[in-house]
Amino acid sequence: MEDALSIIRVKQRWNEVLDFLERSNRTAWLVYFDARLVSLSDGALHLSFADAAKLGGAHDFSAARKPHLQSELEAACREVLGVELKIVCD
Question: What pLDDT, in 10s, does the model give residues 17-60?
């Protein structure tokens, strides 16, 4: 997958992915809008929420691991980027 689509290309189009996600599922958008794209390998897009901790201790980002929200982001990636990606939240 790295050959067909690079992490740089995903980062370049990430706002489009988020815009699509906001229109299709605002809850999923709220979960993922602050995610940091870490890596792309073997069809898996790895996201981190480490920077989100600076926003305050009361936030719980475990929602990012919920399968139905991950599938919404995967659908947005498929629609915007034209490829199947598996979302992995580190």
Answer: 999 999 999 999 998 998 999 999 999 999 998 765 555 554 55
Is 2 within the bounds of a domain?
no
Q: What pLDDT sits at residue 64? A: 61
Q: Residues 38, 50: contact at Cβ < 8 Å? A: no
Q: Which of helix, strand or coil describes residue 70?
A: helix
Handedness of CA 68, 70, 75, 76 (dihedral sign): positive
Nearest alpha-carbon partner for 50 in 65, 30, 36, 64:
36
**pTM of the entire predicted model:** 0.82
Strand order from edge to edge, sheet including 86-89: 36-41, 44-48, 86-89
Residue 67 lies in a domain: yes
* Number of separate domains in the chain: 1
